[in-house]
Amino acid sequence: MMNQLKRQLPISRLRNKGLTLVELLVVMGVLSVLAAIALPNIRTMIKQQRLSRSSASVQAYIDGARAKAISTGQPYGIIIERLATSNAVDRSQSTLLRYAYSPPAYNGDVPESAAIVLPSGNLAFSPMHAATLVAAAQQRVAGNSEPVVRAGDLITIGSVGVTLPIMDIRFATAADFAFDPAYRNLMQSPGFVPNNWPLAMPTTAQIQGWPVVVLDNGAAYSPADRIVRVLNPGTLTPFSVTRRPRASILPPLEMTEGTVIDLNYSGVGLGNALFSPVVIENDASSTSPAFFAADRNYGSVTIMFDPSGAVSQVRMGTSAADGSIVALDITSNVFLLVGRTGNVRPGDNINGITGISGPLGQDNSGIANILDLEAVWIVINRQSGEIYTARADELPRAADGTLAVPGATPLQKLSNAILASQDSAAKYYIGGSE
User: What letter would DSSP give residue 355?
Assistant: First the structure.
């Protein structure tokens, strides 16, 4: 009897430690209620952290480029690639950043290398002294869209200290050398041109293989016109070609899923959205190519640092169909807005702010990033290169809740909206934090 009781006692104790079905259901019900209460807050926290993490990653990546420029003593920076060119939304945002480096300046192959000023204001070069330019012209003939020297690179005319954009590079023709006889003697420098250079017009065979850097852009007062106003045709002048930054082979930065750099509001200076397709076109109408063009390439944005860590150049695309690149004057800080993918709204950022379609970029599907108070401004100080972040500020509103952004034109309203959003970021404007 006692042995049987001992055998049964552990089983009884185990049964007393269990939970009934009713107790389990009560616990599950309580946990479900708590989860329902906490879930919205958790989702909000995750979204906020996503933007914070993404902006921190971008800040660290840019800071890495600045550190590279300081440590190597060579220009280094980043390229902000537009998502695509096929529609207005994709060309208004970026999710990929790459490191960028500047190839060394090219001054010719020998110390006495020089360019000849042509009557058109373009520049010609002896193949014996400019093999890199010969290679670039050959690549253009072969249809290479990215030759070693290309449109958008810069050339400095050493004798006058003028830096001009290169429009194209090609081989010379007889028409390029239609010099006035009075300047023939300027073209007879030993070792630079053939010793038997004729006083008469040279034949095509004699100039075959001479590369020509094209400075004439067809405008009424083109860069080529600037050259012939200060240098006579036939003048020999030293030169230096500054090639545009190239993408590094180092790993790129892919932004956190669901976040972007919103180029609709990013640019150089307070209140300026110079990287926006709308501002590049300088046209906020519904017929602007920024909105309706099936394929429009506004080019990547490149930000370079010099060996001191300061911002040395910012390059961006233009409205030209050939995808031309321009270098901006760096007179102010660089502002980049990090926001949510679903809030990239290139149409509403103009139309909404003028009252055409309600509040700025706001409807049942979401809000524009400039209205999202969780969006983050990244500020790159142009003098020191230091990088800061600040939350976007709320735009002014009227008593009825509608936006109250001043401005006589859509672009003015957009500028004032950006300026209001940058209120906290503005303390880093030139000299650093207040």
Answer: T
